[in-house]
Design goal:
339 residues; Endonuclease III, domain 1; 2 domains; elongated; binds iron/sulfur cluster
């Protein structure tokens, strides 16, 4: 969806001027910008806050500073670096996308919107951000912050329905300037994150206050009613032999997809080991995902020796010293580190 605007609006000019003075130019992905770094940061920022992303981004680019270094990484190594960031499908998509870039684009990050938007994990908004920030070619974007600013400025619905998304895309396209796209794109994202807050927009310092149809009209909710997430109980069994732990690759398309976990006990997987148990202990831990609370119980069984398992699941005995080489949910990794 290319921007067709040939006359830059007051809206975009105000955002550009504001960004030059107030933008978060210190963010690590805004230094020595490359399409590769914009891509990694944009994927990490999907559904995750900036402050959470910063250490993960730094670690990722220090291990893989460019496509050349990433091209030889396997899926496991990428998932291991993602441990704790959540939404692990994003890491799997980075692996798939870099394989396509290697084979179809001679390991150079594609330069056209149509090629970028076809890569796994990249939607129209992320492709627009890469075009605008890395290549400085104007394309509209529509992430959560941009939706919020534009919907308030224009006083239109922002309820994630197809109709409202279509309207917001058209408005985003209309406001996207033909000049200064780099500052505009980052500026509108920053404005949504740091001024036009969800429950308490700071209209008094907003550069858009004059033209904004919602300025000073957004009601401040005294106490946001926090949506209660459902709780899922999980019963794991973890076999260990000295410092080696028996882990299984989770292949189902749900949370922790692609990660290594102990064996989950359910009606399909009843208790698997009867012989040779030396000791057993139980650990309980609670863990919050963005959409789910997990109530985890892990029964740990010690064995003299590692053994083979009859299963169609992918499994491995992982030594504690190698734990950083595997993608593993944070609570599971913390428990094993302490054992
Ligand atoms: S004036 Fe207020 S509501 Fe409008 S964009 Fe700015 S901060 Fe948001």
């Amino acid at each position: 969806m290319k921007n067709n605007c040939d006359k830059d609006s007051q809206f975009s000019k105000q955002i550009v001027q504001w960004y030059i003075k107030n933008g978060r130019s210190n963010l690590p992905w805004r230094k020595n910008i490359t399409a590769y770094k914009v891509w990694i940061s944009e994927i990490m920022l999907q559904q995750t806050q900036v402050k959470t992303v910063i250490p993960f981004f730094k670690k990722f680019v220090s291990r893989y500073p460019n496509l050349k270094s990433l091209s030889i990484a396997n899926e496991e190594e990428i998932l291991a670096l993602w441990t704790g960031l959540g939404f692990y499908r994003r890491a799997i998509n980075i692996y798939k996308a870099k394989e396509i870039i290697l084979t179809d684009f001679k390991n150079r990050f594609p330069k056209s919107f149509d090629d970028i938007v076809r890569l796994p994990g990249i939607g129209e908004s992320t492709a627009g951000a890469i075009m605008s920030i890395a290549y400085q070619i104007p394309y509209p974007i529509l992430d959560a912050n941009v939706k919020k600013v534009i919907s308030r400025y224009e006083s239109v619905e922002n309820d994630s329905t197809n109709t409202s998304n279509k309207k917001l895309w058209a408005l985003s396209s209309k406001h996207t300037p033909s000049k200064n796209i780099f500052s505009y794109t980052q500026g509108i994202m920053d404005l949504g994150a740091t001024v036009c807050h969800n429950s308490k927009p700071n209209c008094g310092i907003c550069p858009l206050q004059e033209g904004c149809k919602s300025a000073f009209k957004i009601k401040v909710s005294k106490k946001e009613t926090k949506k209660q997430n459902p709780t899922k109980k999980i019963n794991y069994v973890l076999a260990r032999s000295n410092d080696s732990f028996l882990l299984f690759k989770k292949l189902e398309e749900s949370f922790w997809e692609g990660l290594w976990t102990p064996l989950e006990l359910d009606s399909y997987h009843p208790f698997p080991w009867k012989d040779g148990i030396k000791t057993q202990e139980e650990i309980a831990v609670k863990h919050k995902l963005s959409h789910l609370n997990l109530d985890i119980k892990i029964k740990i069984y010690s064995f003299e020796k590692a053994f083979k398992v009859k299963t169609n699941k992918k499994y491995k005995w992982v030594n504690k010293s190698n734990i950083d080489k595997y993608g593993m949910p944070k609570p599971i990794k913390s428990i094993i580190e302490k054992l």
